[in-house]
Amino acid sequence: MDKKTVTTIAYLSRIALDEGNEDKITTDLENIIKFVDQLDNANVDGIEPLTNPLEKKAQTREDKVTAKNRKDTFLDRAPKSNEDYFLVPRVVE
Amino acid sequence: MSIQYKSIKNLTSMLQNKEISHKELINETFTLIESKMDLNAFITLNKDAAIEKATLLDSKKNGSSLAGIPIAQKDLFCTKDLRTTCGSNMLSSFIPPYSATVISNLENAGCISVGKTNMDEFAMGSSNETSFYGNVENPWGKNLVPGGSSGGSASAVSSGIVPAATGTDTGGSIRQPASLCGITGLKPTYGRISRWGMIAFASSLDQAGPMARTAEDCAILLNEMCSHDNKDTTSLNEHIPDFTKDIDQPIKGMKIGIVKEFDLSKLDSEVVKVFEESKKHYESLGAEFIEISLPNISLSVPTYYVVAPAECSSNLSRFDGVKFGKRCDDPKNLEDLYIRTRSEGFGDEVKRRILIGSYVLSAGFYDAYYKKAQQVRRLIKNDFDEAFLKVDVLMSPTTRGPAFEAGSKGSDPIQMYLEDLFTIPANLAGLPALSIPNGFVDNKPIGLQLIGNFLEESKLLQFAHNFQKTTDFHLKTPSGENI
Fold first, then answer.
1. Distance from B41 to chain A by nearest Cα, in Å?
2. Which domain CATH number covers B36?
3. Which among B173, B194, B396, B458 is annotated as catalytic?
């Protein structure tokens, strides 16, 4: 884990690192990754990954409309919207 | 008559016998809340709506099981028309358009939500120090942390303001604060309580649960919190028993496992002494002890710190400043909007976990970290499966020690992560586990953890209730008197 890697994952996460704090963040992440490297001690040959403790298939339901259209309720909670859309800065010039 | 420190059972009988009206009870609750604002246990209060509901209950007979019981809701549960921040600046003005299923279940049973409790930001922390809304005080001492992430809920119950609170537990966030604040807290089996309307941190680990003074009150709350919910694809469709039914049954002849790999020699000798005394107590109640080996359990914390950040980085990608929550001022373009919104909206610990998550999920590292952690997760679960062929419950201290001072863990995040050493394994395996007060170290409470087999909350509550019927640790209060 070096500064360059940290800069890349920060960009992938859409997070800006505080200037002047990059060394501390790099050291913290390096220590955490070293800590989880203990997983190398386990013998996992042939072991199926466990993604969820229930190991059940996700339940499905009939594709029926169950809710009312609450467009206004949700648009009202957006930082910026008009009567039909969520608004963001112009993407295409 | 003061309502402080009263249990759900006490308050229900006071209401039924008309010793107090619903409105008086809620008014008294707010008097207590306002007299204890220095705890910083609440982020948002729900006073007007609470009094309105109480007034309605007074005017009309209501047979609901929890009619009029005041409850504090962790600020991670969406509450319709009531601000829900999840301890974050990102959601500082978020008003949900709906309530979480578990909130609706409790309110339909008659509970009155008096406010939203403080918590570590997005439930990432073990001391409540990562909250955007400031630290929470542990009622047991000035500047002591209440634990986390359900720190506000634990502090509110511990100080006797409310008889009950909701919490959530991803790696110990109900049990660790319960231990540090001297109350009882239960994390049910993964899937018992619907996660719909819970703001997600790590979806394969998150589970809501009750926090109260006694195991009996936790059982009463759990009866109402559980439901099968079509809106949560991981909600269990299993029989939901009456969790209060068997708690009085004796535990004579039942078997308790002690985990060989939980090395207690590194703990403070006073902490070990309290644990040994609890063992003796259970022996006196007729339980038998068996040493159990869980060979992979020492890898629980490293496994957790791959799985939880990976799921967190994915879940928290929804906070982009577009549809709800905070947006930065004057974004230059769409990318600037995303980056500045997230950088200003999230605190340091949340950012750290998102970064670890992005790293372990990134191409080239996925197999070495994420896949491997999930394989070790299965080994840990297999260890538990085998253990429960031999024992009824497993027992350990809940925490490595009692409450510590704010700021005392320094700036090394791993020191804080190890706080959840004993609690994380149950989340990885999806098992129910609880913490009950079992003694004091330096006049600060400490808890005992019991882990049960899949769906065996009733048995855990039976063990806990048998302990509480014959001890008084859960009756001690921070103000010094016994209840």
1. 26
2. 3.90.1300.10
3. B173
pLDDT in tens, A8-38: 999 999 999 988 888 899 999 999 999 999 9
> Is B245 within the bounds of a domain?
yes
| Structural domain count, chain B | 1
Scanning every residue of chain A, which has its alpha carbon at the shortest distance from the alpha carbon of B306? A36
Task: Indicate the residue type of B304.
Answer: Y
B74 tagged catalytic: yes
pTM exceeds 0.95 for this model: yes
* Record: contact A77-B95, CB cut-off 8 A: yes
- pLDDT digits 0-9 by tens, B39-89: 999 999 999 999 999 999 999 877 899 999 999 999 999 999 999 999 999
Within a domain: A19: yes
Q: Which domain holds residue A25?
A: 3-40
* Structural domain boundaries enclosing B176: 8-254
Number of domains within chain A: 1
In a domain, A66, yes or no: no
Whether B306 maps to a domain, the answer reads: no
Does the active-site annotation cover B173? yes
The answer to whether residue A46 is domain-embedded is: no
Q: Which residue of A has its CA nearest to B429?
A: A53
- Amino acid residing at B206: D
Number of neighbours of residue B368 by Cβ within 10 angstroms: 15
Residue A92 included in any domain:
no
Mean pLDDT for A47-73 is: 87
Does the active-site annotation cover B127? Answer: no
pLDDT for the residue numbered B1: 65
- Flag if A77 and B323 touch (Cβ within 8 Å): yes
| Å between B165 CA and nearest CA of chain A | 26
Verify whether the Cβ–Cβ distance B376 to A74 is below 8 Å.
Answer: no
In chain A, whose CA is at the least distance from the CA of B343?
Answer: A15
Q: Could B354 and A61 be called an inter-chain contact, meaning their C-beta atoms sit closer than 8 Å?
A: no
